[in-house]
## 1
Amino acid sequence: MDPGRDREFADFVDGRFTALQRFGYLLTGEWHLAEDLVQTSLTKVWFHRNSLRSGNALESYTRTVMVNTSTQWWRRKWKGETPTEHLPEPAAPSEYGVVDDRDLLLRALATLPRRTRATLVLRYFEDLPESEIAQIMGCSLGTVKSNVSRGLAKLREHHLVAAVSAPAQKEG
């Protein structure tokens, strides 16, 4: 390590910090980020101070490092925290409720007779029309309608009719 270069670097920082911070402000648009940018850049430059040919190259190299560091920060997906007075998004719904509802529904479906359960699954989870269900199950349209009616009545007893009676969303 060259003590002369260390002294030269310290003098450079003392004399040019404010100018570098103004340059950093123009790059970032925020004073606190400009200060962070200058400090980060000076840290990087300090490690390479002995390889610079002259003291005049120090400022040019520092500004180049600042531009490159600022560009790297800008490219990062996460820009850091931005303090706000109000939270920008509503609280996420609890995923436990969805799991609990699914568990209750599966338990309630398990209490139904097999044909009634199959009818409800075909109607509300597969979103098939009643006529197609009658074909699949080999029964009349009236039997399908009565199985659906009885099945929904049983699920109402379990307070699950809203979860089943809404038509299933087909994934596309």
Note: The chain has two domains: 3-75, 101-165.
## 2
Amino acid sequence: MKPILPILLFFVTILFSSVSAQADVQARNEQVVLLHGIFRSSAHMEEIEEVLEQKGFTVHNLDYPSTEFPLEQLASMVATDLRQKIDPSKPVHFVGYSMGGIVTRIVLNKYRPDNLGRVVQLASPNGGSEVADFLKENWFYETFYGPAGQQLVTKDAGIEALMGKVDYPLGVVAGNFSIDPVSSAIIPGEDDGKVSVQSTKVSGMLDHVTVYASHTFFPQNKTVQSQTLNFLKFGAFVK
């Protein structure tokens, strides 16, 4: 009879593990809004969307015309889309990549939902981009990146006012690996090829972490994904 006991314990352990995993997924019962960066689409956020869905989040991976309108108009369009999609009875978190993180802050400053949860910015230029400073008067840059691209410069008091102060649980993930040596030569200090680590920081943020990831492939980076998930669940990054 004795050999039966370990076998029973094994199956009981498996059963409780399965129930616990299901309970964790059901307990989430929360929403996450994903906002892509400039000159991108929701397809660029699909990998992180899948990671969040596997953990039980309902994900709204939004598209918005990032190169066609100024930031304030883009934020208004996103807010209108959100009113039609999010469930007001469940917490809603936000994850914004690059300029999507800037649009997120404008949305939360002007159209904040009552059921706001936590917010994560991925490689977002809260302090502006030196690359945008350098290319602002460039016809190619202006044509392809539109009016919002012109607004992503450093020391723009108008954009700072649009974003408002951070008075919600915000976690910021920065990158320090570049595949763009030309842009990195323009940017002071550590950078991800487009945005400096320093520029991602903002007063009022709850936590900040730097990962070895390039700007272009930030949402696809496994460490970025796991850090995002950890902040959404616990309000802190793993360090």
Note: The chain is about 45% helix and 15% strand.
## 3
Amino acid sequence: MIAATPEPPYLAVIFTSQRTESDQGYGAMAERMVELAQVQPGFLGVESARDGEGFGLTGSYWRDEASISAWKANAEHAVAQRLGWDQWYAAFHLRVCRVEREYGMGGR
């Protein structure tokens, strides 16, 4: 689903990853992280997709740097981050971007 973000500017955290082959609770944790992010102050929305070979792309949208920092420091999120390093990801990159403009059609 396409996130219903406000008028820019706002921040985007783009997380690209290559999964390992074993699930080891990944699916349940990914669902929990979306639930948890949705109640964080400054959270604006999320979009995510993964292909059949385990490559994934998740964009989360935030009001400001303080909101992103608070999310990164969340204790439950920290557990998920550690499991990502140890079990779930063969590789990943995280990028923080400032959204200056957006346009599109439908889909919200």
Note: Residues 6 and 44 are 8 Å apart (CA to CA).
